[in-house]
Amino acid sequence: MATLRRRANKYFVDYRINGRRFRKSLGHSKRIAELALKDIEVKIAKGELGFTPKDNSLDKLFEEFLKYSKINHAPSTYERYRGILDNFKSFLATRPYINKISHLEAKLFEDYKHFRKEGKVGDKTVNIELQMLRGMFNLAKKWGYCQNNPTDGITLFRITKTQEPRFLSKDECDKLLKNCGEKLYPAFFTFLNTGMRRGELLNLEWRDVDLARKRIKIRAKEDWEPKTSERYIPMNDSLVSVLKRHRGESKGSLVFTDDKGEKIHKNELRKELIRITERCGFSDVTKLHSLRHTFASHLVMNGVDLPTVKKLMGHSDIETTMIYSHLADDHVDKAVEKLEF
Question: In the predicted model, is pLDDT for residue 303 greater than 70?
Answer without folding.
Answer: yes
